[in-house]
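Hey, can you fold this one?
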Amino acid sequence: MAPLQASRLERSELKKVFQTSRPRERFHRLTHDAIRVVYCELRDSSPHAARPATVLLFLATFWSTCSLILQPSCWAAPYFRESGLTDIPTGKVVEHGIFNIGTYLAFRGEDAIQSDEAAARFDFGLFDRIEIGLTSTRLNQESHLSGNLKLLLFRESGAVPNVAVGVENVGNTIEHGLNDVTRYKSQSTFLAVSKVFNLPRVHLISGHIGIGNRRFVDNVGMGKWLNGVFFGIGKDFHPAFARGDLNFSIEVDGRGVNTGLRHTATTGLQVYLGVEALNALTSDEEGIRFLAGVAWTNRSIMKQTEDSKRLSEQAVKIANQAKRKAEEQSTD
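Sure. Predicted structure:
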């Protein structure tokens, strides 16, 4: 399909989606279409230009999920944060001026999408040292706005790893509205360490380990002996067909084993897929959950802007050098 034809098709389908009256049907349709558009984008689009339909589709998905989480049976969780793995925080922080806005949901293998999680979140970085995150939550017809804060203590350099401390689930209504949910224990503090290793055959791989309290501690299953310790690994892939970056991760979040796959297109559009509580397959705990999400980051735009600025400065420098050389030759 030609890019122009695909763009027209996406616009016509967007109109049909918005004519759907029920938020849940709208969300399911938009999530499916988001994944399809990513495929079309990888196949047809220029790696340096964002297609308007892609941006519109993300905004539609985000708005639709905001409508979804206003349903009283839903509650939210901070999965797929910009600097984290699937669930655990890492020693990294979002760079200055970079932000990520997204939405995601969790569901079980039965039919209980409405009884699990959906959320809208926003992460951004300041001064290359501070990361701030906000998550919108709706539970029992009450609104909750929780925040996360992370501070980078040491930046990775040589043998020194990234080291960060932070606090999650900060909000004056969490104690009464969400604190009965393990993942939302209020004011959960943590320390996280991250390091990139260059291993034979595997090449670059990132390792992460940390310790925390509250939401990172559980008294059932493997949480009984982890005692707040969490860890994980992540691996980036850059296949030519992907027109972007793929990141695969596997982690232990202090309660169970999770795995996730993140695709970041060259336009900044991100799609997440994950599985939570894999250890439930071999235990008597509640069954595994599947995670899916879509987001957008301005990282690629910022990088292109910085590259253009650097090239412009180099061009000006070369032009000035040529001008001075011509002036010297004319005086001679």
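Residues 24 and 68 are 6 Å apart (CA to CA). Let me know if you want another pass with a different chain boundary.
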